[in-house]
Design a protein that fits this description.
Elements lengths: L15 H31 L1 E8 L5 H6 L3 E5 L5 E7 H9 L3 E6 L2 E4 L3 E4 L8 H5 L2 H4 L9 E6 L13 E3 L12 H10 L16 E6 L6 E3 H13 L4 E4 L1 E2 L5 H12 L3 E5 L21 E6 L15 E6 L3 E4 L5 E5 L5 H14 L5 H10 L20 H7 L64 H31 L3
Parallel strand pairs: 7-9, 7-11, 8-9, 11-13, 13-14, 14-15
Antiparallel strand pairs: 1-3, 1-4, 2-3, 5-10, 5-12, 6-17, 16-17
């Protein structure tokens, strides 16, 4: 009979496999404690965030040097600096009394939903007829009005004059390799002698290619600020914007407010989130001083993808809009970005007819004469209604000696029930830009403010070390455990 060891005399012993596993896990924990934390601290110190730093007073370069920042751009339109700031110092910088805000240099992109090549010569005339542009042309063609087109640039094509501009993305020229900017320009200023059948809304206006988006239709906040700054510095009357982003950015908001206070009218697309769970109007159209434009189809129905909200101010054609693309192609596109040129062009017609108007007065005229599409007043889908060029031109002269406009009847019989927006209150009384007659230059000015931010410093070796240590140790534990388990399993009992 085999004797049994008394229960109270049994000793608990770890198996070799379990002993190795526990040992390796302890080593992993120690490695993470002694290696990961210091390296992560060093990583946060070395990594720099791409930000725009706004000051309560004049920009202080010495202050940013204190926070180990790399200065990339000092803006003239706003008291702010574009810089790379170590992550470690961001919180302290935000708390500095000299700093108003530290905002991310966020991305921006085109607000269009689709584009496709189109063939044929039967150019659709319904968009121009819908806004009653032909009747307005008997009074104005927008002569002398300068429009800064903040987009992907413009590529020279037949019957589309443009007057130079600036590349705010890189050190290149303003050539458009995406096609979007060229399409927007063609809808505004294509000459009425063009054999294609396209007629620009304001063929006498001067369009300037301000490239703030790259050849993929993407850019950043700093590119947009530089574009706005260029527009103000060069006496533009209108800034036309067909890009957007989802979150408020204080630096861009400040630049837009400064431009509006300087007398510039700003028109932007409302966005194409209407059929999503977040259908809100995008920025910068969402800002008070910007005319947010929605899009409709030939039947005056809202484009399903068009963003909506209380910020929508006007509506314009935006579905299957034919335009001119790069290489003299004909392109059809949809989205709120395609609606913007109709509002921009109409504003140029009004301003060209009466150059004593301010941007606020031009804006009031556009809203007062819009054709209501949804009962009386303003609604979240169409704003004050469909832009009406003929009606706007009819009352434009009435504002030459008056700062307050009154609505008049529409010559085409349309009902104009809109009233001026109560939110149009610039910080200072704008001064109308000086209108001078110029001709298209044969050579374009050298772009300014074209410094491309260097890539953010990502200490690659540090990241590799941090990530590799736990992965290698865990892999070792698992492999060793499997080997020992198989070895013990093969041993005889």
């Amino acid at each position: 009979m085999t004797s049994k060891t008394p229960r109270h005399k049994r000793h608990f012993r770890l198996s070799p496999t379990l002993t190795i596993i526990i040992t390796l896990l302890l080593i992993t924990a120690l490695a993470l404690t002694f290696f990961y934390t210091p390296l992560n601290t060093k990583y946060s110190t070395m990594v720099k965030k791409d930000v725009i730093v706004g000051f309560t007073g004049a920009p202080d370069l010495q202050l940013l040097t204190k926070y180990k920042a790399t200065i990339l751009e000092v803006y003239s339109i706003i008291p702010a600096i574009h810089a790379l700031v170590p992550q470690k110092y961001i919180e302290s910088l935000e708390k500095d009394p000299a700093i108003e805000y530290v905002s991310e240099n966020s991305s921006i992109k085109i607000n269009s939903t689709e584009e496709e090549q189109t063939s044929g010569q039967n150019w659709p005339q319904w968009p121009l007829q819908l806004i009653e542009a032909p009747a307005a042309w008997t009074k104005s063609n927008g002569t002398g009005i300068k429009i800064a087109l903040l987009d992907t640039g413009i590529t020279p094509i037949d019957d589309l004059p443009f007057y130079g501009g600036s590349n705010c993305v890189n050190s290149g020229d303003t050539t458009d390799l995406d096609g979007h900017g060229t399409m927007m320009a063609s809808l505004i200023v294509t000459q009425h002698t063009s054999p294609t059948g396209l007629r620009g809304v304001a063929p006498g206006a001067e369009v300037y290619a301000v490239k703030v988006l790259n050849d993929q239709g993407e850019g950043s906040t700093t590119h947009a600020i530089l574009g706005i700054q260029w527009a103000v510095d060069n006496g533009m009357h209108i800034i036309s914007i067909s890009f957007g982003f989802d979150n408020h950015n204080p630096s861009l908001n400040s630049a837009i407010n400064r431009a509006y206070a300087r007398g510039v009218l700003i028109v932007a697309s409302a966005g194409n989130n209407g059929d999503t769970f977040w259908p809100d109007v995008v920025y910068p159209a969402k800002y008070d001083v910007v005319i947010a434009v929605s899009a409709i189809n030939e039947n005056k129905d809202r484009l399903r993808s068009a963003s909506f909200g209380s910020e929508v101010e006007l509506a314009a054609p935006g579905e299957k809009i034919w335009a001119r693309g790069i290489g003299n192609t004909i392109v059809s596109g949809s989205g709120t970005s395609f609606a913007v040129p109709y509002v921009t062009g109409t504003a140029a017609l009004v301003w060209g007819e009466n150059n004593s108007l301010t941007n606020v007065e031009v804006r009031n005229i556009l809203t007062q004469t819009a054709t209501s599409l949804h009962g009386d007043g303003r609604d979240k889908y169409f704003g004050y209604g469909l832009i009406n060029a003929a009606a706007a031109l009819q009352i434009a002269p009435l504002n030459s000696n008056n700062n307050t406009s009154t609505s008049t009847s529409n010559p085409s019989g349309s009902t104009n029930t809109a009233t001026p927006s109560t939110k149009i209150n610039p910080q200072t009384t704008p001064t109308p830009p000086t209108i001078t007659q110029t001709s298209p230059p044969t050579t374009f000015p050298t772009p300014t403010n074209t410094q491309t931010p260097p890539p953010t410093t990502l200490q690659t070796n540090t990241i590799i070390i941090i990530v590799s240590i736990p992965i290698i140790l865990i892999f070792t534990v698992i492999t060793t455990s499997i080997i020992l388990y198989n070895k013990n399993k093969k041993q005889p009992n």
